[in-house]
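User: What would this chain look like folded?
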Amino acid sequence: MSAAAIRRAWVREVHTSLGTGLPGPGAAIGYRFRPGGLGAYQHRLETVDGAAAPALLIGFPVRGGRAGEHLRALHEVLKARPGLFPAAAVWHGVLRLPDGRTCHALLAPDPAAEGYRPLHGAPLGDEPPHARFALARALAAAVRDLAAVGAVHGGLDSATLLARTADHSVRIAEVEFASLRRDDTPLAVGAAAGYLAPELYDDLGEHPEPATEAADRWSLAVAAHVVLTGFHPYHFLLDLSLATIGGYAASQTWPQHRLAASAPFAVEYAAALASLPDAVLELFARCFQHGWRDPDARPSAATWLATLTAWTGHPVVTALHADRSCVLAGDTVTVSWHTRFAHRVLVDGVAGGPDGSRAVTVDRPRRIVVRAIGPSGTVEAATPRVEVVRVPPLRLRQVRPPFVLAAHDTPAADRPAPVPLRHLDPPGPPDRRPLPPPRPSVPAPPRPVVPARPGSPDPGRTARTGHTERHRP
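Assistant: Here's the prediction, encoded as structure tokens.
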């Protein structure tokens, strides 16, 4: 039979019905196989008594199961809290097939008609960080609603968690299979590989014991990790067997496995983890490291919701103050700040906490920029302009030290002695009076020469010694 063929059935009994326009006893229905079905709901209701049917999916639970009992208990809860689980089944009855056989059937709203997609099919790769955080918060709120009524789903995974990225809302499918009372045994829904809590399976398969709320906490942590980072928390391991995960958890501290990831994913995954606040990373560590062997250590859905709510929002610098508006060049200015929805702050490129203060050196007139980084984005703020006053350096004359060493008697050879100091008066101020102009140079007059006597044999000698010979007797 082709996927487009319509199959026929007739309503034999109606056990539970919550809503209007639903088929009653004796109604003829037509349904068609739905490619890419949703868990137990692999068909879509097409007609009711020949008329177009509302957007409902039809599912056939396991033969002999107690889906009807669980749905009846769920409808009792929904009467007191309408709209709590909008994806829950609204109808349970018995159908008679054309070959005469009978089977139980469930009708549930079609999430695709309202824009919901399974988590593994939602376009999360194109979502900005703030949208991912809002979606993770909606996941925690949906699981919190389960825990609020005491329900244990046991099958939370990427197929039963439905997301609508347009408004960041989440619904849980197949919630009618959850147990609402402690004495109930959860039905065999079973989470997909990678979402199932470690105490519920081993190397041989799933365990028969019933799931507990701790199993839903594990599944929620895995789903939140996939939404916030885009990766499964153990995406780097070869398999998800207990021996493989247990060996890693015993030798490493979460999330050190980002260093063991393959090179193309390691940088992207490390960047995704670095964008998360420490409070969220601590919840992951409590679940995947401590909660591996101790289910009670896993954070509850209410804890996840409170933590994610505190970080769901664009970062805002609520206060920014500089203690001085004018400084000398090279002095420091103390900048203090307060932020919201930011887990890291950069002050002039230096990392700091979401609230604090830091001394910044200012050597030119400028504004000091503070960048607040949060899981939902980045915002910048700047202080008022800080002016800088420059003082020219003083020219200091060289001054001879007032102490000089004075030589005295030589000390003993076996014991060194300190050299005494002799005090000198400091030099006086230099003479700043202008120097007189130099006198002009005057040539000396010629030296007189005595004339020689007539008949002198040596006139030169007579000239040199004339004054002596003149008085010689």
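Confidence is low (pLDDT under 50) at residues 462-473. If you want, I can go into more detail on any region.
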